[in-house]
Amino acid sequence: MKAIVHDEYGEAEVLTLAEVDRPEPGRGEVLVEVRAAGVDPGVWHLMAGLPYLVRTATGLRRPRDRVRGRDFAGVVVAVGPGVDAFEPGAEVFGTCGGAFAEYARVRVDRCTAKPPNVSFEQAAALPVSGLTALHAVRRTVRPGNSVLVIGAAGGVGSFAVQLAKAAGGEVTGVCSTGKLELARSLGADHVVDYTREDPVSGARRYDVVLDTAGLRPLSQLRRALTPRGTLLIIGGEGGGRWLGGLERVLGAMLLSPFVSHRLRGVISQENRKDLEHLGQLVADGTLTPVIDRTYPLADAAEAIRYIVGGNARGKVVVTI
């Protein structure tokens, strides 16, 4: 089968399209013919081996797993021992290792049925970013809360705006000039162009700040909170080569017990129940995956370059 592989860490040029053996499903797994695969910054981190902390899980000198990609949507073609949740022909979506390939091996607890009225591209855009936004909003936003979403037009941010509105929040979205209309279309009550004004230095205070951009220090973000507000740091972009932006999350966890604010990070928990919930939200029109553009499998490296450049509006998807 064809797959996007790499045998060393680096930028997108280390990726190549190659013929590799088709995997076989093990116990509790299914084999999926991949139709579409989502692209998010996490793919770059695993490809580049940065921050260096990720290499403790992926291989210190070179990647243990050659095939990249995590979000997928496709069709089950075979089931492993002990699997009774799906049969060949079932359309599913979820997370796995090695989604940038014609076939991928998937744990049944990391996938669910794709709703019939949701496209493969839409379903592939959901898992990692959608679950992250879902868990962030679920932990923090209550009806009537004022919510600031920094990075409102990005992969996680575009989902967070919609989910925060559905949870009853009054949402202010922060993004660049060219993405303001997108943030409004997603349901943001107010928008802030960060190229023209600093969203965290004004007079307004928020019950919840969801920071998906990963650049501002804690001291600045806390100034945007109400006295007992909550800051949730999503992701770890923009930091050093050893910890990336994770030092902000660590700093928030250490500081939180000593201040009136609740400061924390979020780690997405991949599970079938929440994937099913996301799929239903898309099926009933509550949630809309924003897909900026799609790339064929052979151009997966270009898709990653586009994401890393910070220009994407919502999600980017690789089609197979």
Automatic annotation (TrEMBL):
**SUPFAM superfamilies per the UniProt record, alphabetical:** GroES-like, NAD(P)-binding Rossmann-fold domains
Q: One Pfam family for this entry, by name?
A: ADH_N
Q: Which organism is it from?
A: Actinophytocola xanthii
Tell me the superkingdom of the source: Bacteria
Mention one GO molecular function: oxidoreductase activity
Q: Which residues form the Enoyl reductase (ER) domain?
A: 10-318
What InterPro entries does the record tag this protein with?
Answer: ADH-like_N, Chloroplast_QOR, ER, GroES-like_sf, NAD(P)-bd_dom_sf
Name this polypeptide is given: NAD(P)-dependent alcohol dehydrogenase
Q: Which PANTHER family match?
A: ZINC-TYPE ALCOHOL DEHYDROGENASE-LIKE PROTEIN C16A3.02C (PTHR44013)
